[in-house]
Specification:
This protein is an alpha/beta fold. The structure holds 5'-O-[(S)-ethoxy(hydroxy)phosphoryl]adenosine.
Length: 652
């Protein structure tokens, strides 16, 4: 990050005048309210925003910290919040606008969404015996049925666990086993760049051998031939037509689980991040309203996949909870050309557009002049998420896409935070390129010194923490209380009390603006997707010739970070690059995790830089991967000469 003072862009007056939070004075008033009367603040919004079946009697219960309970005594159903409550005023409004890879289009009104979700819920209940608390795995492409499946689970109180369609059979098997899911909802496949690709065969493979899964529901999307397992597989189109459009919503306690989403940590296997009903949906809706400022007739588009948290909160739950129109897109943004998103913005008159920096970099590189070809004047808010955005990408987004009039909301958050925690407010926050700016109202986010637990001064890096529990925070790691405590509440204490640590480093500038500097742990961020180096290492270790491996992230022009692996072979005569072995190892990664974890570079080395206690010094490996000179003291290494040998191997 350059030390140059960043320019400040003032909010566009035209949009600011009607924004929900109009200026920094209003922002500060809200934040002061939350600081002085935390429970009063959250209680007020919970009452105002949620359609309760039974009102709550307590706001927050921290007596069993870090296991915190919100809105005790309250009862609701999230599908009612997202659908039923809108029917009186919005039944003919578009809830979802779907565009397929090949340009096929479908508009689903709130009434139609209601009917489809109720039918889906009845199917799960009547045909598969799904009940409150059961786990349902969803392995789907980006089609409306994925959203129906999520909301149908919510209607029944079943806990969904979506597995991103790019994950392999092994990865799917692990997640099914960990959640002990009884049903899998999938599709035959879908389309990508005008060609069919398959999902069902991956499910078949994941269910080989022992499995808790009793039924697989298959939605037909591309009509390609698939294997059918009698007694287990059922056709969605056959069953759904028989179902009634009335399904009584299961009335849930505020803290009943809504979903699990597996995500990578710094060690071990991915963990099942658990989110519960009331707190999650409240914050999904509030951030939708504040951060995107979506108006009643606006059209909002988030390009994420429902397999990630961004798709959960900002394609499905957030937009629908507030009664907005959300666009769902099956395809890739660069097909048939890098003007596709801008063409869609023009066609649907999209007002808010939300994507990842990696997509912006690719669209910029492949289609610098594409935005000029379309009428993008409907755009008001442009969002980014998933990784730090670099100034050239920011500038192009702001000037060429947003015509220097839109607010850029650089939203910082994580799977675990449920929704945004640090972000500009469009119309209110003067923005600076690459800055997530300030904590949202109600979020007590601070950059702390990990040793003293005190807030750091401007310019000093520290750990991005949240010092008070908030409604949408992670409620647990599925089946592993200890891991939950250790992963998030072990590292930093403020005034003697454990606080939530995000795993990210951050820094304040002289105006108090927050810039996220990246992970402080062994998690890397590849094209905005979180990947644990330990997971990739475990996959590589399955190659029978491999003796030892260490994986690090290396800056990459388009992906943000690429995956760089150092491998010691049992037959240690292999050093430098080796095409054949690289292919073999990447094939194993493809099977174990999926294409998203393929290594960009694998270097075969004679040893790894280890301390005398056997710890691998990853900082040295990261520096070598970047081609940087080694400045740190290497005399404490067990064998300091290994550094030069590794450098030689990398440079051959
Ligand atoms: C990173 C995605 C910089 C961060 C919503 C975090 C960001 C991880 C930003 C979470 C941002 C997310 N600026 N870095 N605006 N947003 N990150 O769980 O490292 O897939 O910890 O959630 O992405 O990734 P996850």
């Amino acid at each position: 990050m350059s030390e140059m003072k960043k320019p400040v862009y003032k909010p566009n007056r035209e949009f600011a005048a009607s924004a929900r939070i109009k200026n920094m004075c209003e922002y500060e008033t809200l934040q002061a309210w939350a600081t002085e009367d935390y429970e009063g603040f959250w209680g007020h919004f919970a009452k105002e925003k949620i359609t309760w079946q039974t009102p709550f009697d307590t706001v927050m219960d921290e007596s069993d910290f870090p296991f915190v309970k919100w809105f005790g005594g309250g009862r609701l159903n999230v599908s009612v919040q997202c659908i039923d409550r809108h029917l009186q005023t919005r039944k003919n409004k578009a809830a979802i606008i779907f565009e397929g890879d090949r340009g096929d289009k479908q508009t689903i009104t709130y009434m139609e969404l209601h009917n489809s979700v109720n039918r889906f819920a009845n199917m799960l209940k009547n045909e598969f015996g799904v009940r409150k608390g059961d786990r349902v795995v969803i392995y789907m492409p980006m089609i409306p049925e994925a959203a129906y499946a999520m909301l149908a689970c919510a209607r029944l109180g079943a806990i969904h666990s979506i597995v991103f369609g790019g994950f392999s059979a092994e990865a799917l098997r692990d997640r099914i086993a960990d959640a002990q899911a009884k049903v899998v909802i999938t599709a035959d496949g879908a389309y990508r760049k005008n060609k069919p690709y398959m999902l069902k065969p991956v499910v078949d493979k994941a269910l080989e051998g022992d499995t808790p899964v009793e039924k697989v529901c298959v939605v037909e999307r591309n009509g390609e031939e698939i294997v059918w397992v009698e007694g287990r597989d059922v056709s969605y189109s056959d069953l759904i037509v028989k179902q009634s459009i009335h399904c009584e919503p299961e009335i849930m306690e505020s803290e009943d689980p809504l979903f699990l989403l597996y995500t990578s940590g710094s060690t071990g296997k991915p963990k099942g991040v658990q989110h519960n009903s009331a707190g999650y949906i409240l914050w999904a809706q509030m951030t939708m309203e504040w951060v995107f400022d979506v108006k009643e007739s606006d059209i909002y588009w988030c390009t994420a996949d429902v397999g990630w948290i961004t798709g959960h909160t900002y394609i499905v739950y957030g937009p629908l909870a507030m009664g907005a129109t959300t666009v769902m897109f099956e395809g890739v943004p660069t097909y048939p050309d890098a003007g596709r998103p801008w063409k869609m913005v023009e066609e649907y008159r999209i007002n808010q557009f939300y994507t990842a920096p990696t997509a912006i970099r690719v669209l910029h590189k492949m289609g610098n002049d594409e935005p000029k070809k379309y009428d993008l004047s409907s755009l008001k808010v442009l969002g980014t998420v998933g990784e730090p955005i670099d100034p050239p990408a920011w500038k192009w987004y702001y000037e060429d896409v947003g015509n220097s009039k839109c607010a850029i909301v650089d939203t910082y958050w994580q799977t675990e935070t449920g929704g945004h925690i640090v972000s500009p407010l469009p119309g209110a926050t003067p923005i600076k390129p690459g800055c997530a700016t300030f904590p949202l109202p109600g979020i007590m986010a601070e950059i702390l010194d990990p040793k003293t637990g005190e807030k750091v001064e401007a310019g000093e890096g520290g750990y991005m923490c949240v010092t008070r529990p908030w409604p949408a925070m992670i409620r647990g790691v599925w089946g592993d209380e200890e891991r939950f405590k250790k992963s998030y509440f072990g590292d930093v204490k403020k005034e003697g009390r454990a606080v939530y640590f995000t795993g990210d480093g951050a820094v304040y500038d002289e105006d108090g603006y927050i810039t996220i500097t990246g992970r402080t742990d062994d998690v890397i961020n590849v094209s905005g997707h979180r990947m644990g180096t330990a997971e990739v290492e475990a996959a590589i270790n399955k190659h029978e010739g491999v003796a030892e491996v260490a994986v690090v992230g290396k800056p990459h022009d388009l992906k943000g970070e690429g995956i760089f692996s150092y491998v010691i072979m049992k037959n240690d005569t292999v050093t430098g690059r080796n095409m054949e072995l690289t292919k073999e190892i990447n094939n194993i990664i493809k099977q174990e995790i999926g294409n998203i974890a393929l290594c960009d570079d694998i270097v075969f080395v004679p040893g790894l830089p280890k301390t005398r206690s056997g710890k691998i010094m990853r900082r040295i490996l990261r520096a070598i991967a970047k081609g940087e000179a080694i400045t740190q003291d290497i005399s404490t290494l067990e064998d300091p000469s290994v550094v030069e040998k590794i450098q030689n191997a990398v440079n051959t």
